[in-house]
Design goal:
- The two termini are 22 Å apart.
- This protein has helices spanning 28-34, 52-55, 69-86, 97-103, 133-139, 155-165, 181-190, 200-207, 212-235, 242-256, 314-333, 340-353, and strands at residues 90-94, 115-119, 125-129, 145-149, 172-175, 195-198, 260-266, 287-296, 299-300, 303-308, 368-370, 377-381, 394-397, 400-403, 407-410, 413-417, 422-424.
- It is of the alpha+beta class.
- It folds into 2 domains: 23-62 and 210-424, Creatinase/methionine aminopeptidase superfamily (Creatine Amidinohydrolase, Alpha-Beta Complex), CATH 3.90.230.10; 89-198, Creatinase/prolidase N-terminal domain (Creatine Amidinohydrolase, Chain A, domain 1, 3-Layer(aba) Sandwich), CATH 3.40.350.
- The strands form 5 sheets. Strands 4-3-2-1-5-6 form a 6-stranded mixed β-sheet, sandwiched between helices.
Length: 437
């Protein structure tokens, strides 16, 4: 359930502003001393200062198998099929996760237009600032038609020129949903004879079903996140601040070779699903929530774990067990052909029947969201969503109970739909006493 993405400007992401900026590069001296409490944060230096559980982590970067050029070509062919079926003559995709998905080009979104024009047949045409031509060519693996525009020129006219060259200046132009309004308006104004529509039937139509290669990358990222969380849990000490714990997570990820981070909330602040910016200190017997992930070739994990240092009280144990039962109920309900909203209903019924209802009273958010290159993608496991599950879809499965002013518990693992049911990419958290089994 994490918030805005620091790794790209896609739909949603997981590094909490203010708390996590730069933690992956936090010096080992600061992280190591954090384990002894905030007062010692500048005392220790070097690798030896890190907790043993963090030092034991090994790089998994060598296990990352990137998406192949052939698979990206298959994606473009699928996009063109969906364009045909949807009556779309041309599509514009700007910087962001969909550009990565179809072409492999990783490009930051700015006021300068860079993007791809795709029509129903043929290779894509790339539009980019002329001074960025070489950097664009470095990332292109197929379809080397690059059109550059100079700083005193109108890039929208160039996009319109490309579309007209493809013979579709009077048809339907689909705009990828994350293209900023000022840019979509500029392109629309340059193509007044075209009808501009949302490209989601194509982008979501391709991206919501994951290939075996995508599932493998997501599984690796999620497995890595779980190992990082366990290593950090074993290093926790009373008196640590939420920032020092976040820093420890960043350092742990750095040792695994995958970029990642997590938001951390402690004690009463766990009663808010996205926590608080207030300073927090770890107290023995109170819950801590980790929520975040890492990336493998751009594909993200998203795991939440609720843990305790020392002995949790009976109330925390009770709530933890209810949330785990709710997560199991959602997993049991998942199979192809089932409405997405049914999974939310299954988890919510468990929580309400246990006395933490009705509706959103204590379980205050939807059950889950789609996930892939963006942490939050199509579709959503939420009440009323009648879209049907299909094999290859991936979602967070993250029920929670939040008791205002006291504590909260949330458990999150990534669910993937199979031909005859569903599974989770990581083992569940079995108990509050042994959260990693």
């Amino acid at each position: 359930m994490s918030t805005n993405d620091s790794f790209n400007s896609g739909r949603r992401g997981f590094l909490r502003a203010g708390t996590l900026a730069g933690v992956a590069a936090l010096p080992a001296a600061m992280i190591g001393s954090a384990c002894a409490g905030p007062a010692a944060e500048t005392a220790a230096t070097g690798d030896d200062a890190l907790p043993e559980s963090i030092r034991a982590l090994e790089s998994v970067a060598h296990r990352v198998v990137p998406i192949t050029v052939d698979e990206r070509r298959e994606r473009l062919a699928r996009a063109q099929q969906l364009m045909e079926a949807s009556g779309i003559d041309a599509m514009f995709i700007g910087a962001g996760s969909s550009l990565v998905y179809f072409t492999g080009i990783r490009w930051g979104n700015s006021e300068r237009l860079t993007g791809m024009v795709l029509t129903r047949s043929g290779d894509p045409v790339y539009v980019t600032p002329e001074f960025e031509r070489e950097r664009t060519l470095e990332q292109i693996t197929f379809g080397h038609d690059v059109r550059g525009w100079h700083e005193d020129e109108d890039p929208y006219r160039l996009v319109a020129q490309v579309v007209r060259e493809r013979g579709v200046g009077t048809g339907t132009l689909a705009m990828e949903e994350m293209v900023p309004f000022f840019r979509s308006k500029g392109i629309a104004d340059a193509l007044p004879q075209m009808k501009v529509v949302d490209a989601w039937p194509v982008t979501a139509g391709c991206r919501r079903i994951k290939s075996a290669a995508e599932i493998a990358l997501m599984r690796l990222a999620n497995e890595n996140t779980l190992k990082v969380y366990e290593a950090v849990w074993r290093a926790l000490k009373p008196g640590m601040s939420e920032k020092s714990i976040s820093g420890l997570i960043g350092t742990a990820y750095a040792r695994t070779g995958l970029q990642g981070g997590a938001s951390v909330n402690v004690g009463k602040y766990t009663a808010s699903p996205h926590g608080s910016l207030a300073p927090q200190t770890l107290v023995e017997g109170t819950p801590i929530i980790f929520d975040g992930g890492c990336r493998a070739d751009g594909y993200t994990s998203d795991i939440t774990r609720t843990v305790v240092v020392g002995e949790p009280n009976d109330s925390i144990r009770k709530v933890f067990d209810i949330v785990l039962e709710a997560q199991n109920a959602a997993l049991a309900a998942a199979r192809p052909g089932v409405a997405m909203g049914a999974l939310d209903a299954a988890a919510r019924k468990v929580i309400s029947d246990a006395g933490y209802g009705p509706d959103y009273r204590y379980f205050t958010h939807r059950l889950g969201h789609g996930i892939g290159l963006d942490m939050h993608e199509w579709d959503y496991l939420v009440r009323g969503n009648q879209h049907l599950l299909e094999p290859g879809m991936t979602f967070s499965n993250e029920p929670g109970i939040y008791i205002e002013g006291q504590f909260g518990v949330r458990l999150e693992d990534i669910l993937y739909v199979t031909e005859d049911g569903a599974g989770l990419m990581t083992p569940q958290s079995p108990s509050i006493d042994q959260p990693f089994g």
